[in-house]
Amino acid sequence: MLSSSSSSTPTVPALVDPQEEVVSLYASREKIHPRSVSGFFSRWRWGLVWATQLLFYGLPWFQWNDRQAILFDLLSRRFYLGGLVLYPQDFIYLTGLLVMAALSLFLFTAVAGRLWCGYACPQTVYTEIYLWMEKRVEGDRAARLRLDAAPWSAAKLARKVGKHGLWIGFALWTGFTFVGYFTPIRELGSLTLAGALGPWQTFWILFYGFATYGNAGFMREQVCKYMCPYARFQSAMFDKDTLIVTYDQGRGEPRGSRGKKVDHKERGLGACVDCTLCVQVCPTGIDIRKGLQYECIGCGACADVCDEVMDKFGYARGLVRYSTQNAVDQGWGRAQILRRALRPRVLVYGLVLLAIAVALGVSLYLRVPMKVDIIRDRGALARMVDHGRIENVYRLQIMNATEEQQTVRLSVSGIDGISLASEPVVDVLPTEVRSVAARVQVPPGVDSGSHRIVLRVQSETDPKIRLDETTTFLVPR
Length: 477
Fold this sequence. Notes:
Layout: H1 40-58, E1 63-64, E2 67-68, E3 70-73, E4 78-81, E5 84-86, H2 91-112, H3 115-120, H4 122-138, H5 141-149, H6 154-179, H7 185-194, H8 199-219, H9 221-227, H10 230-233, E6 244-247, H11 249-252, H12 277-280, H13 301-313, E7 320-323, H14 325-330, H15 334-341, H16 344-366, E8 370-376, E9 383-384, E10 390-400, E11 406-413, E12 419-420, E13 425-428, E14 433-442, E15 449-459, E16 466-475
Helix pairs in contact: 1-4, 2-16, 4-6, 4-8, 6-8
């Protein structure tokens, strides 16, 4: 039998050193409340907000030839761009536009950094709009911080509900406009008012609206910092002559607070008064004084507010400004910066972009607004008809890419005595894809095997429209 002393619980040695520090790899996000700012770059930013949104929300309502000017009709597989009617076979033009967009991004980034992100990117534009609505309902930055820190009350709930109501309404209108590019927007409006929207239309309105509401209302800078791939590979397109938002460290340091009447040079201080306003106005919450960071979207808000502070203290503007690393290090002026803008990589991007744009423009100008696909009748490759003639049957799909009826005449050549036995004249309605059976015959005595022939489609409505399509004529042994 064990004694009471021997039955006591043994001491377990400590597994964690009390002097060790546990570091969490997860940092919770602190909501950023950007401070409002006015200035030269802010006016440019809002000018582009108005320009892009008037374009996006206004284009679907414009009419062209009694139909929507810009419409991507996926059901009928026709894409209307003003006077152009494109088919899926014209995918090469979309490819050209995408290549031009990519090269334009490379060119603008090499010259002036992330100007696209700071001024015209939909994420930036919609975040600006949502911040404006938030400010109108909840107040300026200080008021929003107090409201978030305050306990829940009827007044706080009313403000939050009002803000989110505006956000949701704007998001749904955005989703409606987006779907209006694929379904005629006037028809879509009638269906919406009648409560007769189809399942796919409803899904995309809600999905695009939810994406706008979530990205611009909640995620905001997180999209730019973590989700957008451009922030990750932008450094590959930057060099020391790229125009970026920079802090003049030589002029600003050592920073420190002081009164307006204090001579900062006598106290050994730089021009930076350490007001942190550049951090407060930043939509991504970075401190530009720490140097270029991938989170910087180049919006210039910090430059605007810093210029205001410099004006109040009577200092020269430009402590935070658009400049290049070489210009800051070597004290260059505007003329030297502009001369360095035309460096080899920029010229290469520009020339390639110009070449593709010219080629795309010429191709569109020379494009024949009609297409023909020839499909051989697989049921009977070749057959003998009256008077020993050999006949092949083809299925022609004639795509009229104009908005007027075309009367076309079919003819065939390539073999002596070859003729078209079917109806030679066909009417094709505006933007119609018409399937026509073409019976082609050759006289007896033609050598067996395959022979190259040319089927011609000539418009009698517009003599400029003519297509010659090559195919083969089979003569059996």
